[in-house]
Design a protein that fits this description.
The protein folds into 2 domains: about 210 residues, Alpha-Beta Barrel (TIM Barrel); about 130 residues, Lyase, Ornithine Decarboxylase, Chain A, domain 1, CATH 2.40.37.10. About 25% of the residues lie in helices and about 25% in strands. The chain contains 11 helices and 19 strands. Helix 10 packs across helix 11.
């Protein structure tokens, strides 16, 4: 039998979450973000589902990610959010009908010298206050002049990113929106489009929706807000992470368990060894007490997570046996452990956990 660790990917959940995007921003076009292997869900498969569902465009972080989609037969518009990293990427992007998001005069200089086989679409990135990437508002006229001198280039519009969209009441969001809007007003007669909102703003800041929205983590059923999990926002987790019991051990009072003897039994206990670990992407910092599902019931992890295995408490599950399914993220019966819950315990964000899931874990598509 092959190793039982699998990531289950639900097509139905993905399509449901896309509908939540569309219902939340009904007047905006959708640029679905599938960078970082679709947040660990499998970019080619996810992009194919989204393309068939009619998304207006896809977004990735690099040329390599974009070419992977094209080589798999994805024909939808694809934009590279960080633009080119070297000059030779620009002709390749044009050849494969890939759009670019440009954020620096250096990239504009590369574009001006590029020999393009076909036209190329670009967005300009405006730094509205996040101070990560983008042209300062005062530099935008010069950027536009440089762009107009580039033959075969079609400027789609302006794009920016909110630094505090996960805090909808924070005044800094209004500052960024005002900066973006005031800058765009100077270009209102040029037929350009605007894109500002990602998942958090899609859900709670409708004044930022504009012409394009760029959903990422919400497509995968994860919450962008620290105080609420995805299901409370009407989202359905797309990924479930499961494995199985390899063996069952009996501990006596006083027995130590695993690396570093990180857990000591205070009574007689049944302990299951599960075929998953940090080598698969399950966080090593999770351990004693972390919820896990076995037999449709909540149990807990014991001791440290090792590279390929971890321990689960079976003391209240007397019939559990080798081969039984163990759900690390997902639903089993009426119980559920969400990635949002695990991220809170790990002191991180949910999409870091899905991005961690390694390539050796097969992604299995479910309806």
């Amino acid at each position: 039998m092959s190793r039982p660790t699998q990531a289950l990917i639900s097509q139905g959940a993905l399509l449901h979450n896309l509908q939540v995007v569309r219902a939340s921003a009904p007047r905006s076009r959708v640029m679905a973000v599938v960078k970082a292997d679709a947040y660990g869900h499998g970019a080619v498969r996810v992009a194919g589902i989204l393309e068939a569902a009619g998304v207006d465009a896809l977004a990735v972080a690099s040329l390599e990610e974009a070419l992977q989609l094209r080589e798999s037969g994805i024909s939808a518009p694809v934009f590279i959010l960080e633009g080119p990293f070297t000059p030779d990427e620009i002709p390749a992007a044009a050849q494969h009908r890939l759009g670019l998001v440009l954020h620096s005069f250096e990239q504009l200089a590369w574009l001006s010298r590029a020999e393009l086989e076909s036209d190329i679409e670009v967005f300009l990135k405006l730094d509205s206050g996040m101070h990560r990437l983008g042209f300062a508002p005062c530099d935008l006229p010069g950027a536009l002049d440089s762009l107009r001198a580039c033959p075969g280039v079609h400027l789609c519009g302006l794009m920016s990113h909110l630094a505090r969209a996960d805090e909808p009441e924070n005044r800094y969001n209004n500052h960024q929106l005002e900066t973006f809007s005031q800058t765009f007003e100077q270009l209102a007669d040029q037929g350009l489009e605007r894109s500002l909102a990602a998942s958090a703003a899609i859900l709670r800041s409708p004044d930022t929706h504009l012409d394009w929205v760029r959903p990422g983590l919400m497509l995968y059923g994860m919450s962008p807000f620290a105080e609420v999990f995805g299901p409370a926002l009407g989202l359905v987790p797309v990924l479930q992470l499961r494995s199985a019991l390899m063996t069952v051990r009996e501990l006596k009072p006083g027995d130590w368990l695993g690396y570093g003897a990180a857990f000591q039994a205070d009574r007689r206990m049944r302990v299951g060894v599960v075929a998953i670990g940090y080598g698969d992407g399950y966080p090593r910092q999770l351990g004693n007490g972390t919820p896990v599902l076995v037999g449709g019931r909540r149990s807990r992890l014991l001791g440290r997570v090792s590279m390929d295995m971890l321990f689960v408490d079976l003391s209240e599950l007397p019939t559990a046996k080798p081969g039984d399914e163990v759900m690390l993220m997902g639903r089993q019966g009426t119980e559920q452990v969400t990635v949002d819950e695990l991220a809170l315990l790990a002191g991180t964000i949910p999409y870091e956990l899905t991005c961690r899931i390694q390539g050796r874990v097969p992604r299995i598509l479910e309806s």
